[in-house]
Amino acid sequence: MSTIAVPTPLPSPAADAESLRNAMQGWGTDEKALIEILGRRSAAQRAEIRRAYASVYKESLLTRLDSELSSHFQKAMILLTTDPAERDAKLVREALGRRGDDRDAWVLIEASCANTPDHLIAVRRAYRSLFGCSLEEDVAASSAFQQPLRMLLVSLVRSYRCAEEGVDVDLASQEATQLAEAIWRKKQPHAGEVLRIVSTRSKSQLAATFQCYKKEHGSDIEQDINNCSSQFARMLKIAVWCLTSPQKHFAEAIRYSILGLGTDEDVLTRAIVSRADVDMKNIKEEYKVRFKTTVTKDVVGDCSGYYLDILLALVGSED
To answer: What is the rounded average pLDDT of the residues 52-75?
Structure first.
């Protein structure tokens, strides 16, 4: 569930555009006003504001935010204001240009698995529009990720999953057995049947398959994947989480970003910005159960300034 606190009554997109313009005029920028507006609107409402701003002021709101803001606050506000599919397309492009560590693979898995099948189609379209090439082909040609991980990522980004909720119970049992044979018995999570099942079945069908796996083989599939020590196995587990329980992955991602001596602002910003409209409430609940503390408390302990303010606005209140 979303944690965006939309005000009532809601100003019109034109009024919000004017308020944003006023906040970025003159000698200084009113960052608090930007947070109050953009941090308290849904993705659809932000899209209407972008269009109204461009129509009235003949410039891109994103371009103006880029010129007025700086550092981690700038990136958070731009990611928040960007169309979600375009945002994911740009994040994937950046990840493909880096070294291919676990955090880069997370970006591709989140974009392809953590949202609806229609969102992935929109990401592919946005990628082609922005960069003039195919997302699938770029992942397949990338030197950032080695095989067999690259094969998994290609399978995920090219997937056309059914969005229907129907489940074939017999198929779930059959494919649970196939998964157990590859992952539990042979310790081969990269087997072709594993890739086929994870990259093609609907989320509801996968959930049923994983339930059968536990019932028939006595352990959760992610536990058995953990026993196959490799980067591929780690990323397969993230894909399983994002497909069936995305709050698990994003709770772990937020925790990871704030542990240690420094903060990984890229991971933290992406997790909170991308999920505020989707399921941040579920993530907060998972975080509290898993880590015995709250997202708010940990973010406050690691961040500051306007960057902290926008993150807290998106995380929302906690009991």
So the answer is: 97
